[in-house]
Amino acid sequence: MAKSLDKSGNVYRLRSIASTLTAHREKIVNKRHFVLTIFVIFFIGANSASAQDFREVSWGMSPVQVKAIEGKTPDIDSEDLRSEALHGRVIIYYDQYLLGMDCTLGYIFVEGKLIRAKYAFEEVYWNNDFWIASFYEVQEALKKKYGSPTEEEVIALKDPPSYCDGPGDEMYYGHSHYYTTWETETTRIVLFLSSENRDPSFGIEYISKELEALEAKAKKEDTEGKL
């Protein structure tokens, strides 16, 4: 599900969206309200009581340390794979359930150090506007934990195609992208929603500000080594 987000395009504008939800969607939102409250209380408490950068881990930890803290075998471990797309990285994945949604949790390591982590939501909606509603639900939870974002934007075509019936369709067909960013002393948090080839990518990325350059370095060295 993880993929690079394309910010290029034609003429763009910033825009706020007010989504209209059906009765079915309202039931989903009500179900998640309790989960959202628990999420905020738990993580605000954890944030004030510890110095961990993400969940219970810290940037720079090894795969062995992270696996020990998670306390279970990863659902997918790239150390067991041989994929050229990894560019020298090690990635371990866990199935998770966050804010009422199924998701995959990924830990990304370079040179044996944890540099990045990511929640990739796996929801499938019959109404594309539900993607937008879910994005703002997660955004609200993150605002309660991290405060006002450092950047919040919707990048969209000035004149979307006529076949797009509302903001959900515009996102689904790749004509708009949603981003919200927060900064802590050690971490950059990015909430994102975009789509490529009618395949939406929706998740939260946590990036070590100190170690993020290692990933670009590893990709460059891996590519140059194959030439």
Strand content: 25-35%
Shape, please?
globular
The largest sheet, given as strand count, sense and whether it forms a barrel, is: 9 strands, antiparallel
Number of helices: 5
Give the overall average pLDDT: 81
- Fraction of residues in helix: 25-40%
Return the structural class.
Answer: alpha+beta
CA radius of gyration: 18 Å
Give the total of domains. 1
What is the element string, with H for helices and E for strands?
EHHEEEEHEHEEEH
Count the E strands.
Answer: 9
Low-confidence stretches at least 5 residues in length (pLDDT < 50)? 1-31, 33-50
Separation of termini? 28 Å
Q: Order of strands in the sheet with the most strands? A: 1-6-7-8-9-5-4-3-2
What keyword list fits this structure?
single chain, alpha+beta, nine-stranded antiparallel beta sheet, 9 strands, 32% helix
Brief description of this entry?
By secondary structure, the chain is of the alpha+beta class. 32% of the residues lie in helices and 30% in strands. The protein contains 5 helices and 9 strands; from the N terminus they run βααββββαβαβββα.
What would you note in describing this structure?
By secondary structure, the chain is an alpha+beta fold. It has one domain (12-225). It is built from five helices and nine strands. A nine-stranded antiparallel sheet has the order 1-6-7-8-9-5-4-3-2. Strand 8 (187-196) and strand 9 form a beta hairpin. Helix 1 (23-49) packs parallel to helix 3 (129-146). The longest helix is centred in the first third of the chain and has 27 residues, at 23-49. It is globular and about 50 Å long. The two termini are 28 Å apart. Residues 1-31 and 33-50 have low confidence and may be disordered.
